[in-house]
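Batch manifest line 109
LIGAND: heme C
JOB: complex structure
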Amino acid sequence: MSNKPALALLLGLLGLSNSLPAMAEPDGAQLYRQHCGKCHGSDGRANTLRGWLYFAQNLSKAKWQDSNSDRDILDAIAKGPGAMPAYAGKLSEAEQQALVKAVRDLRKP
Ligand code: HEC
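JOB STATUS: finished
ARTIFACT:
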């Protein structure tokens, strides 16, 4: 009995698993531009008409970044304080987590 068919099958499976796309990570920066930039601004400084109208938080401020945990940011995204819409029902948990990272990236020294 030859092992060749089994070997070929194994190599085939390996090749297949290599070509499977990696689990798609949600793109936080893109989600931010899509959902948040209109109020908080592309740089987080809320220097937008809606930002002014709604008193949106300047998310780039180091002081604000320091006084808010990832949990606080996630809560704000899920529940939407004040005039901000809630995203719990609109975005997946993974997308909300990716947005927390995107908000952290807005930090200015
Ligand atoms: C309609 C305009 C609007 C949109 C869209 C919006 N926000 Fe807000 N956001 C606000 C306003 C206004 C506040 C301040 C509310 C308050 O604390 O009184 C706020 C507050 C926050 C806070 C909490 C600030 C704090 O000090 O607790 C975070 C974090 C935040 N927004 C992130 C986001 C993210 C991320 C998105 C996109 C998923 C988003 N916002 C979309 C208007 C908006």
